[in-house]
């Protein structure tokens, strides 16, 4: 991997402030939302115990996600907690990845499993921080966690809020953590096709996942759109995950500078949170949710382009 990056520290500060103000401008802070640092009552102890467990294999990830689902299904509102919607989606995709590790389609199963583990660690860490009522919970995850009990947010939008936080915020950091163990890949390294294999899993699961969470109104719109929304969301998955890979390459160049990494982390978090607020304002119609994600992807990309100079 050969990139040369110059880091614009002044751009970091201005971008972070602009993203915070823009998020405040569009945020829907209505009665009934869980307060910041609201925790996982009445299952705080169970969630804390889960998040304290070591995660070293994809089997550990699946067991953790299954236990998290059991816990979330006991949280209010009964059997309709919005974080549970994302957790269920995440389990489905991870289970498919676990099955793919044994297939001939994977060139380096160790890399793909390690990436999956590092990816999951960030989700479990966000759950832990929120349970500890820690204000350092990433803003990207806070957007979803605060709406865990909000029935006004559709289950489809809630799942997309989690996907946004996990891909736009967590994935690049998971790649960097994995490369610290494996070394950064060369341009022709076979691990990149393994990374893209997850896209194919998403493509296959998108129609079922979206319809699992859709309201009757969203299902009606889905039927009118036919295959168009499936195609557009496949394109979106590919573009968003490609962007995460590009982010990771840029962050890799900063890996020895903790202060610059922290600055980059702040902007990435605030950009992802802003995307989440866009999703909330666009809730209700399938193709508008996709449009919000596309707009958000562009926000994340343009924000980082301002602070990273090749």
Would you give an account of this structure?
The chain is mainly α and 310 residues long. It contains 12 helices and 2 strands. It has helices spanning 9-26, 44-52, 58-72, 82-100, 109-131, 139-145, 155-182, 191-213, 216-225, 228-252, 258-281, 286-307, and strands spanning 6-7, 308-309. A two-stranded antiparallel sheet has the order 1-2.
Can you count the helices? 12
Arrangement of strands in the largest sheet: 1-2
The helix-and-strand class reads mainly alpha
Biggest sheet record: 2 strands, antiparallel
- Strand residues, percent: under 5%
Q: How many E-type strands?
A: 2
**How would you sum up the global shape?**
globular
Poorly predicted runs: 221-229, 284-293
The H/E string reads: EHHHHHHHHHHHHE
Radius of gyration from the alpha-carbon trace, in angstroms: 19 Å
Rounded mean pLDDT score:
82
Helicity level: over 70%
Show the helix and strand layout.
Blueprint lengths: L5 E2 L1 H18 L17 H9 L5 H15 L9 H19 L8 H23 L7 H7 L9 H28 L8 H23 L2 H10 L2 H25 L5 H24 L4 H22 E2 L1
Question: How is this structure best summarized?
Answer:
This protein is an all-alpha fold and 310 residues long.
Descriptive keywords:
2 strands; globular; single chain; mainly alpha; 310 residues; two-stranded antiparallel sheet; 12 helices
């Amino acid at each position: 991997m050969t990139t040369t990056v110059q880091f614009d520290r002044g751009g970091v500060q201005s971008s972070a402030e602009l993203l915070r103000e823009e998020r405040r401008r569009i945020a829907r802070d209505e009665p009934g939302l869980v307060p910041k640092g609201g925790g996982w009552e009445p299952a705080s102890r169970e969630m804390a115990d889960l998040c304290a467990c070591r995660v070293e294999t994809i089997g550990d990830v699946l067991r953790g996600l299954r236990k998290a689902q059991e816990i979330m299904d006991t949280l209010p509102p009964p059997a309709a907690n919005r974080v549970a919607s994302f957790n269920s989606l995440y389990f489905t995709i991870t289970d498919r990845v676990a099955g793919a590790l044994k297939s001939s389609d994977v060139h380096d199963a160790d890399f793909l499993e390690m990436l999956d583990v590092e990816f999951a660690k960030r989700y479990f860490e966000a759950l832990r921080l929120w349970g500890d009522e820690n204000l350092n919970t990433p803003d990207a995850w806070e957007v979803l966690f605060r709406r865990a009990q909000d029935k006004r947010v559709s289950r489809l939008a809630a799942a997309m809020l989690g996907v946004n936080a996990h891909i736009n915020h967590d994935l690049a950091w998971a790649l960097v953590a994995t490369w610290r163990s494996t070394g950064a890949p060369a341009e022709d390294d076979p691990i990149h096709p393994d990374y893209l294999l997850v896209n194919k899993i998403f493509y296959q699961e998108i129609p079922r996942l979206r319809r699992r969470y859709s309201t009757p109104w969203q299902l009606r719109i889905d039927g009118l759109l036919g295959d168009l929304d499936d195609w557009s969301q496949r394109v979106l998955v590919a573009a968003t995950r490609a962007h995460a890979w590009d982010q990771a390459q840029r962050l890799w160049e900063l890996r020895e500078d903790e202060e610059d990494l922290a600055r980059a982390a702040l902007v990435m978090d605030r950009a992802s949170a802003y995307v989440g607020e866009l999703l909330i304002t666009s809730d209700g119609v399938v193709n508008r949710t996709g449009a919000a994600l596309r707009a958000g992807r562009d926000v994340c990309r343009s924000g980082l382009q301002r602070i990273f100079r090749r």
